[in-house]
Write a structure and sequence with these properties.
Blueprint: E1 20-23, H1 29-39, E2 43-48, H2 59-69, E3 73-77, H3 83-94, E4 98-101, H4 107-110, H5 115-121, E5 126-131, H6 146-152, H7 173-196, E6 200-205, H8 206-212, H9 215-222, E7 243-246, E8 251-255, H10 259-268, H11 283-288, H12 290-301, H13 306-315, E9 319-322, H14 326-331, H15 333-338, E10 341-345, E11 351-355, H16 379-385, H17 390-398
Parallel strand pairs: 1-2, 1-4, 2-3, 4-5, 5-6
Antiparallel strand pairs: 7-8, 8-9, 10-11
InterPro entries: CoA-transferase_III_domain, CoA-Trfase_fam_III, CoA-Trfase_III_dom3_sf, CoA-Trfase_III_dom_1_sf
Protein name: CoA transferase
GO molecular function: CoA-transferase activity
Length: 403
């Protein structure tokens, strides 16, 4: 693997120390995959258009997108439509281990920087492409965003109330999941390269990721189950399962469909007669009498606060969770204990808070890489590391090749 000579440094034991990554991505999926590698210690260089990642131009949420998925990287802004800009890109790619891109269909190939070209020149490179739709399918040339994948994977058809419009998940969950799927594929390819000496061409898509997020539901359907439909809260074949129950000050979700758990719930509530009630004695009967069951759950729990419900049922090993707002989550003891909120340090002081990796490596502290760079902020340093002289850099700037 290449030896990183500069760039944001991770902890001494960072598993990807020495790995160099070129990030050609925009928005979430590509940049997110590259940032996972950065948090694991890789040196990541983000190559942006002269105007920057398109997320920089879509308002407040776009800026949050940039902050959330570009920490720990260096940025260089290049005119990749020019011969000189592509020559810079090729020099940077030559010193890299991994290239990641999620640009619109065909864009990297038109620039001459697609996986076939890159890996022909540099067979050890691992090249990850994240598209909207599978590369072998008829929709391969369509632009694909998170919302299109939610719609076309069936996810929206099972989300929401049965008598209302289909609903998207409240966050771009497919984009975010694709980032981790892509990073996982890169990690596997890096391990494979240690054994074979060869790189790999990797492909995934938002549609495939969205399908995989629904693996259990799809497995049931592929096995002859009925067409899944929207039912709001609850699960179609179990009860109570994922049911939303009102409390004195909000809502909880409750799952107690295993017979032992249901009987325990009845004992804890002082309503043991419910366990032998023909309407509720078995899971099948509870599903068949879901409306009556929900009325019973409301009667049992609406006099408690959400926190009292969580405490009471949790102590008795019954699965429950309070429906919390972001402010409640942030103030909660579990969030504080997780250490997931990290301080992304600014290059010249300042910075912002963000979420770190959702797992830990042994006793190592949660990585807290530097804040996302401004567009092109590290251009001169990146060029110098690639062997360009100050005169070369000045000439590239004067020609409008590098911002």
């Amino acid at each position: 693997m290449s030896t990183a000579s500069s760039g944001p440094a991770g902890p001494a034991a960072a598993p990807l120390a020495g790995v160099r990554v070129i990030d050609l991505g925009q928005y979430i999926a590509g940049p997110g995959a590259a940032m996972v590698l950065a948090e694991l210690g890789a040196s990541v260089t983000k190559i942006e258009p002269l105007a920057g990642d398109q997320a920089r131009h879509i308002g407040r949420y776009g800026e949050s997108m940039v902050r959330a998925y570009n920490r720990g990287k260096r940025s260089i802004a290049l005119d990749l439509k020019s011969d000189a800009g592509r020559e810079v890109a090729w020099r940077l790619i030559a010193g890299s281990d991994v290239v990641i891109q999620n640009l619109r269909p065909g864009a990297v190939d038109k620039l001459g920087l697609g996986p076939a070209e890159v890996r022909t020149r540099h067979p050890r490179i691992i090249y990850l492409s994240i598209a909207g739709f599978p590369g072998a399918g008829p929709s391969r040339d369509r632009p694909g965003y998170d919302i299109a994948a939610q719609a076309e994977s069936g996810l929206m058809s099972v989300t929401g109330e049965p008598d209302r419009l289909p609903q998207k998940v409240g966050v771009p969950i497919v984009d975010a999941a694709a980032a981790h799927v892509g990073a996982q594929a890169v990690l596997a390819a890096l391990y494979g390269r240690e054994r074979t000496g060869r790189g790999e061409t990797l492909e995934t898509s938002l549609l495939e990721t969205a399908l995989h997020l629904q693996a259990a539901t799809w497995c049931e359907y592929l096995g002859g189950g009925p067409e899944p439909t929207r039912i709001g809260d609850g699960q179609p074949h179990n009860a109570p399962a994922s049911d939303v129950v009102p409390t004195r000050d909000g809502h909880i979700v409750l799952s107690a469909y295993a017979e032992e758990h249901w009987r325990r719930f009845c004992r804890v509530m002082g309503r043991e007669e419910l366990a032998s009630d023909p309407r509720f004695a078995t899971n099948a009967s509870r599903v068949a009498h879901r409306a009556e069951l929900r009325a019973v759950l409301k009667d049992c729990l609406s006099g408690y606060s959400s926190e009292e419900c969580v405490d009471l049922l949790g102590r008795n090993q019954i699965v429950t969770g309070a429906v919390r707002r972001y402010s409640d989550v942030l103030a909660g003891a579990d969030m504080q204990a997780s250490g997931m909120v990290v301080d992304a340090r600014g290059a010249e002081g300042g910075g912002y808070r963000a979420l770190g990796l959702p797992y830990r490596l042994g006793q190592a502290p949660q990585p807290a890489p530097p804040a996302a760079p401004e567009c092109g902020a590290d251009g001169a340093a990146v060029l110098a590391d690639a062997g360009y002289t100050q005169e070369d850099i000045s000439a590239l700037r004067a020609a409008g090749v590098v911002a």
